[in-house]
Amino acid sequence: MKDLDISLYVPVYNGEKTIKGCLDAVLKQTLMPKKILVINDNSTDNTKQILENYKDKVEILNNKKNLGISLTRDIAVNYLKTDYIASVDADVEIDERWLEKIYTSLKKNNATWACGKMYEKYLNNPCNLWRSLRLLQNWGEKSLLNPELIFGCNNILKTTHINLKNIYKNYGDYFKRNGDDNKLTDYLKKNNHNLYYESEAVCHHLLNDNYFTLASRYSRYIFYGDGLKKKNLFKTIKNIFRHLKKTILWLYSDIIHLRFSLLIVDLFLLYHLIMIDIQKYKNK
Fold it and tell me: Between residues 217 and 254, which one has the greater pLDDT?
């Protein structure tokens, strides 16, 4: 499989804590891509300096301004000219056989887009444990044809039967901040493309949240799930009551399942979510 027309790209923004682990794992793959591309989305931390250590092994592009995850993906997918394009987020560490297994499953199942199974790596942190239960980024232990969603954090795309310039041309606030996983999944399903979830293509999430970053992440998911609705006083109050209701359910579930370390996470998350909503209303 050495001569396969496969490339792999990593979009990164302020990834100084995880980009080394990500790239070291990519460079140990049993199936090596023809090209490895890293796009630095105008990071303001030490990401650019860390990437200098890899310039002999990977190609690096630096965005002149911060474009967001989806527009950075646009650049990568339209820049790479291979039949298969794999993508790994900068806070993801793939197992050595990840690319080999995900590519094989894509071919075997005649799929256009496939993703692997991501676990949280640092479950000793209660915030990460909370996220692994309620912001899960895998479909379980069994592989699945045409899952509900292909996760953007780790996947491979077959490009030969799709028009990349039409698909990867997403602009506006949703695509700048949140990515286009849902939109591309819907597009491919509507056009009768097979999707696949390969449970044996394993990777690990290197993210290490605290109460505030977890609340910010969850708040973004709610915001985009609501279709980027603008905040007013009524919607802010409604959202706060929704947070209260969910927190009661989370507390009940964690008590029933003896997850006592998560109780404090539930409560601090509620506090930060309320503060974030109030601040959004003030800034509207």
Answer: 254
Residue 119 has pLDDT above 60, yes or no: yes
Q: CA 61, CA 178: separation in Å to the nearest integer? A: 21
User: What are the pLDDT digits (tens) for 25-53?
Assistant: 999 999 999 999 999 999 999 999 999 99
**With contact defined as beta carbons under 8 Å apart, do 115 and 165 qualify?**
no
Assign 161 to helix, strand or coil. coil
The values of phi and psi at residue 112, to 5°, are -95, -30
Q: Which two tokens stand for residue 63?
A: 């965005």
Domain boundary at 205, 232, 253, which? 205
| Shared domain check, 150 and 86 | yes
Q: Which of 178, 205, 232 is the last residue of a domain?
A: 205
How far apart (Å, rounded) are the C-alpha atoms in residues 47 and 14?
6
DSSP 15-61: -TTTHHHHHHHHTT-SS--SEEEEEE---SSSHHHHHGGGTTTSEEE
Is 151 a residue whose pLDDT tops 80? yes
Q: HSE (CB half, 13 Å, CA atoms) of 23?
A: 26
Quote the tokens at residue 160: 């030969």
Same domain, 260 and 163: no
Structure tokens of 134? 């309620």
164 in the same domain as 87 = yes
Does residue 242 sit in helix, strand or coil?
Answer: helix
So what's the pLDDT on residue 273? Answer: 95
Alpha-carbon span 236 to 124, nearest angstrom = 33
Answer yes or no: is 1 within a domain.
no
